[in-house]
Every structure is written in C-alpha cells, then in structure tokens.
Amino acid sequence: MKHFTSANDSADPLVLARQTIALKNQKQNFEHLGRSKTLGLVFFNPSLRTRMSTTKAAYDLGLNVLVLNVNGDAWNIEFEDGTVMDGSSQEHVKDAIKVMTGYCDIIGVRTFAELKNREDDYTEPVLNAFLEYSEVPVISLESATLHPLQSLADITTILETDISNPKIAVSWAPHPKALPQAVTNSFLQWIKFIEAEVVVAHPKGYELHEEFTGGFELTNDQSYALDSADFVYVKNWSSYSKYGQRPPVSQNWTITSEKMAATNSGSFMHCLPIRRNVVAEDQVIDNSLIYKQAKNRETAAKTVLKNILEDINE
Amino acid sequence: MKHFTSANDSADPLVLARQTIALKNQKQNFEHLGRSKTLGLVFFNPSLRTRMSTTKAAYDLGLNVLVLNVNGDAWNIEFEDGTVMDGSSQEHVKDAIKVMTGYCDIIGVRTFAELKNREDDYTEPVLNAFLEYSEVPVISLESATLHPLQSLADITTILETDISNPKIAVSWAPHPKALPQAVTNSFLQWIKFIEAEVVVAHPKGYELHEEFTGGFELTNDQSYALDSADFVYVKNWSSYSKYGQRPPVSQNWTITSEKMAATNSGSFMHCLPIRRNVVAEDQVIDNSLIYKQAKNRETAAKTVLKNILEDINE
Amino acid sequence: MKHFTSANDSADPLVLARQTIALKNQKQNFEHLGRSKTLGLVFFNPSLRTRMSTTKAAYDLGLNVLVLNVNGDAWNIEFEDGTVMDGSSQEHVKDAIKVMTGYCDIIGVRTFAELKNREDDYTEPVLNAFLEYSEVPVISLESATLHPLQSLADITTILETDISNPKIAVSWAPHPKALPQAVTNSFLQWIKFIEAEVVVAHPKGYELHEEFTGGFELTNDQSYALDSADFVYVKNWSSYSKYGQRPPVSQNWTITSEKMAATNSGSFMHCLPIRRNVVAEDQVIDNSLIYKQAKNRETAAKTVLKNILEDINE
C-alpha cells in the first residue's frame, strides 16, 4: 500500500479489515518495523481520538511521531498557484508539504469540509496537495469527503460480530450544527465490500452524493430501514444538494430504545463524539458498539501503518 | 498502588517519600518497566512544570506519552447525566474518558478549582469522572482540592534534610489573584505522616477546610508560626468560607529576610510559580529549597508511575 | 561544544559544516548517544520547520523530546530583576529556566526580535537569560538577532556544491511585513569562514549592523551584486537604523528569471517560508536550493546535538 486515503487505495478493503482483526489478537511485538522512522501528523483541524489512536498505533510499531497543529491564524497557507503572495498567506502549500515530508517517512493529514462551496470540498484541495507534493506515503486522518480510518474500524467492528449477511441500516440523525458528509460517504464506500443488505434512511433534502449511495436501497422512512436490522449505523450530516445547509426536518429522527426494539436485536454504531439524547437516547448509546469502534480505530491505524512500513522496508 | 489521587491512595505515604529519595540516588535503568506502554496526560488547565516533570519521569520508565490539551473552546465536555446535548457540549465525559483510556495504560489528569461554587469544587467532578469511567489507573496531576505529586515532592524534600522532628510553619502569603486551596490542603494531608510540629498561620477569613487543618495548631499570627521554624512552607490561597473570595488583609504577610531571621535557620519552601517580592522577597527565594522541590517533582512522579507499573506488570 | 548560539560557539564553523555533510552520507546509527537523555525545546514564538527538523534530529540521536510552547497569554514571564510581581507576570525567567533545565539534558530556545526597540533586541534578553540560568547546554533555535542552525544548513548547502571560491550575492527582497535581521546577520557571520567573494545588496535605509557586514562589499545596486554570482542568497529584513521600520523602496527588488540570467547559472537560496512572486518569481523558486537547505536543517541540528552529546558523555 502506497497511500491510504480511501477504500480505493487498498487492493481489497476486506483483507485490510481481516488483518485488523488478526492484529488485535496478536501478541507479537512489531516495534522493529518503524524503528528509526518518523510519522508526521499534520492537523488542519483539531482532533482528539484520531490523534490519540494514530499516535498509539505508531508507538506500537516503534515509530517516532511529529505532530503539527496548523492553526489558521498562525500560519496561513496559500493553495492557489501563481499568486502574488503579498497578503496574509505566509507559505505556499507546495513548499510547506515538500519541507514537512522531507523530515518524515510517512505523513498523515487531517482536514475538514468547510461546507461553504461543494466543489471546493469535493475536489479535496488539501489532501490532493499532499498527494501531489509529498515525497512519502500519505495517510488521510479524515478529509473533506471521506474518513477511511473510521470506516476500516467500522467494518472491522461489524466483521468481528460474525453475523453473516447482516441487514445494516444507515440512518441520519439530528444534530445542532451542520456537519460534513465524510463519515457516511466513507462508510458506504467501505461497506460495499461486505456481503450485507444496506438500507440508507434520511429525511428529504439530505440525499448524499450518488457515488456513495449508488447500489444501496434509499428511503425517507427511518422505521423501514430499522426494521429487523442487525446494525444501526447512525450519523448526522448536512445537505449535499443545498450544500452545507440544514433543511427543516418534521419527524423525530433521534434513535430511541423503542425504535431499536423493532430491529433484530440490532447493534447501534456511531463514530463519536456523540450528542447524547439528540442523536440517540442514553440507553441506546450505553448498549452499543461505540467503544469497540473507538478501540478499533487504534488497530485500524496500526494495520494501515504496518502495511505501509512493510512496503517501505521492502 | 491502583490510583494516585491523594495521600489516602498509598498504604503508607512515608514509604513513598523514602522510595523517592532512594530512586534519586539509584543509577539503575528502569526503562523496561514501561516499555510498550503508554501514559496519557489530559490537561483541562495549562501546565508547564507538571507536564515536563511527569513526561520526563515517564521517559525514564520507558513509557510512551500521549498529551491531550483540552481547550474549553475547542471541545466542550458535558458532565451532567441525562442531558439533551443540543447546546455547546460536544461530548459526554463518560464517552470521552472511556475512549481516551482505551488508548492508554495509565492516565494522568489535571484540573483546577473554578472557585465559583465550593461544593462543585470539593466534590471533584472531573477527577471523580475519571475514577468512575477510566479502565486504567488514574494519576492526579492536581485536582480542584489536592495536589498529591507536589506534596510527595515536598515531604521528600523535607525528609532529605534529615532534620528530626522539625517545626514546620505553613504560612499564607499575598497574591494578586484568587488561587485554589489545593496545594496547602494537600501538603497538610501528607505532612501528617511526618513526625513534626506543624503550625498553620493565615489572616482571619482564610481558614481552610477542617478536614485538612484538624490536629494542627492554627494561628493568625505569622510571627508566632515562624518563630524557631525549621521549614517555612508558604502559599497563597483564597477564602474557603467566603468561597474563592479575597477578604482584606491588614498586615503584611510577605516573607522577608527579617522574618526568616526569627526562624531556626529555617528553609523557605514554595511550590512555584512564585510572585517574587509579593509572596516573598528575592533574597528569601534565592536561598530556599524551591529548585530542590521542583526537581523532586520529577522523581515523585517516577516513584508513583513505577509503583503503578509494577502492579500492572504483576 | 558547550552551547550553540552563534558561529562563535564553534572552534571552527567550517568543520561543523563538513561534519554535517559527512553525517548526511553516514548510515551509522547514533541512537545510543542520546539514549535516556532529554532535549527540551522552548518556543516563545511559533515554529514549524525548526521544531520538526530539530525533533527529527533528536529522534535520530535517540533523545527524548519535551516541547514547551510559551504562549504569552497563558504564562507571562518577568525578565526584570527585583520587580514586585503583583501585575500580570506569573513567573520570573530565572525560576522558569532553572526549573525547566532541571528536567532536561539539553535545552533549545526560540525567540524573535520584537522590532520595537533596537537595544532590547540586540542585547538578546531571552537567549542570554537561558545562558545565565540554564544548568545544561543551550541551543539557539533562532534568537532576536541570529539564526545559527539556519546558517549552518546554508553554508553546508553551499559547500556541498563543490564550487570553489564562489561569488555569493546576498540580496534584500520585498515582503509585506517588517521582518527581523536575524537570518541575514547570521548568514554573514557564518559565510566569513568560507573562501568566497561576498557582495551584499539592499536599498538605501536597509543597512545592517556593521558587526555583520564589516569586510564585505556593500551596494545599493542589485544587478551589480547578481552579476556572475554563483549563489543568490535572498532575504527580506526591516531597517536597522530606523529600527523595525520599512523605508520606501523605489525599484523592484523581486528576484526574476531575467535577473537570474545575469548570474553564473547561479543557485537561488532562501531560508523559507517564502512569499512567492513577492520575494522571487515562481520559476526562480522552483529551480532553487530551498528544499536542500530545508533538509539540511535536520542534519545541521543533528550535527550540533551530536557534538554536544559527545561532550556530555565524555
């Protein structure tokens, strides 16, 4: 594996998930793999669990870690080519990346959708700049439209349950702020590789990009999706068509214990952080897979880093 | 030792201090103890010497370190149970702690008193949330009401001088801002285990919680406390009865060379940072134990981490 | 080598540059040198490439790294002696440094010129406080008036080209903000040790301190300096005589491809970050030594740390 920015970077995403399960149960020490090598982590947006889980995975592989928090106020980066940089931009992204990656053996980068202009987000300017200018392998720690490490952890969590051909309900849920579509996009991209019946439910106006929903059953009826589901994957996102907006929703989409009762003893899943009693009721969250998913973030990162290191060391 | 949040977590605090002295003089390398293990340090409030000394101690024990600065603006945490989280709180403390401790083998947490509501501070909501939800041992890096690593360093510093049955004056001192009672509370909790004559001096209105002062001689006369003292432990704190307030003080409580002359060649102690020529005169500070105390912070942390690691490795 | 704060701290700066070249090509692992030792990095000003390159160098030498970002708002430091600290200053620089260096084996410190009062900057209060109070070797990661690690990387980059007795044009260039003189001062201090013909060009009003320009040819004619130059070292700085100001400049000092055509196939050099199409045109920057200089920052830091560690370990 050279880069890791979407399911498409892996020859077989399912193999990656199975490697993740195997790695969790392995007592073997892999610290020799990353010894004397350095992982750079560049955060254009703040991060807690991604930074912790990725750093922990790196330590387990013997890697040194360099963290760079790019604070927009302190270090303005120019993304346009040919600009006369006499304004607030202090460094061109090309120069910044060439220099940073010169000090690292692998680089991870985190950026969010701005939710202002759809094309700006869906062309992934930050991630693609790293792919263009980096001299070392690039790992996405969440980009404007995808979150592959989260998705790898998610499908690993599903595979671990050993339920064959499950019904997976993917449901929109309420949230007080406009959020990106990245986590759901990415989950749909990865879940294609699992044999499963997937139904995606959301209110009208919250249709996702068909690149991700194509081939899945779509509904505006949450109860239809939840009916007999084995997994209930829940996430808020803002509108893709009226980009970044939050069209009014008349019904209550919060996941309740009552709603979960209609599933096939279904397991609630969420990527965290979660707004309790908004996205889902306390009782639903307290009996869920959320902590397993979070813990699998560490092993997912370790699997990806291990694959990349094995390629580098070859 | 499972957790380390107060003197009560140790079977015998004096043994811990003696271990600290022994560890300082030991050339043995203990990096195998923490090898392939990770210490998480969560700061709800900024910290310089605590972070440096604890990280240095962790490195000496071969531990990897993950630092998390919880910035109130960037990541609002909900402490109440059952809340509908549709406001500014982004994650419930329960979920945050379960996830964070999932990536660590030991977790340290730092929080301060808000000095607004006494019960809020003295019930230690942050520290107790960690004790409730953490899946790994918890170390206090200062809490709302106690600062055990500071106190362990302090009594270690006193024991190192080999003065038997010393007189210890604990004196309030002026400060331009309202400060918590944690350092003094904690010192009084730990000093109980040393054979010593302790006199606590403070202006009227600055009485401490009797849980900590009980059994000690109390006075509003600073010169009475300092008279023939072997150690002069100085600290500012705000009022406990008129919680967080700074009742007016008529006399000058700054420690001067003149006042120190009345002691038994007494040693001035302070936890740092210190406001020079407010808490004490330059000359007093320049001839004090403050740098020894600071250096002992590192070994105190090392002793505590070593005990916890030995328990984990058992 | 005890400290590293200017060319004067090295018996022979040229030997240091040659060691840097040798170290780059050496496969030998030097992680034993720093094993169980800690490098503290104190940043009074934000830093990206200095922090990354120095940290990477430290990791290569087996050093643990403690980073301290001194945020002016969070931790106000008092530099005056004898002050009654009842204002906003929370800790005296003397106490802060004694405590910090107590936890480290080597300390690096970064500070910038304030460009308000020339004497304040040129007496280097922060760096000199570290030199006065530190109990361990001090490395400058850029100070108010010098940037020795940058200069070591720069002369290493020049030596690597194997051009004997080169003509080196040092040219001022435009910039939208007032910048310190440190990088150019420092380059001139180090370049003295290379056999070279140096011409320094800048607009009237931008004369540098004669301590650094003494012995070099000075001109206000950029084309005269660039004529047949083998290296074109470019940097903006604000006025030294009208301290920190930006006197008006009538001509265009931006380095263009046309101007470079008059050189002896000269190599463009800059310390980064660079304002593209302000300091120099894209095409000039894209065919330059800037990434080599940046990469040499890592090896320069490694060379300096290695020398200091060898002295410590003796």
UniProtKB/TrEMBL annotation, chains A, B, C:
Annotated carbamoyl phosphate binding sites: 47-50, 75, 110, 147-150, 271-272, 297
EC class name: transferase
Segments forming domain Aspartate/ornithine carbamoyltransferase carbamoyl-P binding: 14-160
SUPFAM superfamilies: Aspartate/ornithine carbamoyltransferase
Pathway given in the UniProt record: Amino-acid biosynthesis; L-arginine biosynthesis
UniProtKB keywords: Amino-acid biosynthesis, Arginine biosynthesis, Transferase
A Gene Ontology molecular function term of the record: ornithine carbamoyltransferase activity
GO biological process, one term: citrulline biosynthetic process
Matching Pfam families: OTCace, OTCace_N
Its EC number(s): 2.1.3.11
Reaction(s) the record says it catalyses: N(2)-succinyl-L-ornithine + carbamoyl phosphate = N(2)-succinyl-L-citrulline + phosphate + H(+)
Residues engaged in binding N(2)-succinyl-L-ornithine: 142, 175, 235, 275
Residues of the Aspartate/ornithine carbamoyltransferase Asp/Orn-binding domain: 183-306
Role, per record: Catalyzes the transfer of the carbamoyl group from carbamoyl phosphate to the delta-amino group of N(2)-succinyl-L-ornithine to produce N(2)-succinyl-L-citrulline. Is essential for arginine biosynthesis.
Description of how the protein assembles with itself and partners: Homotrimer.
Family designation: Belongs to the aspartate/ornithine carbamoyltransferase superfamily. SOTCase family.
Protein name as annotated: N-succinylornithine carbamoyltransferase
Source species: Halalkalibaculum roseum
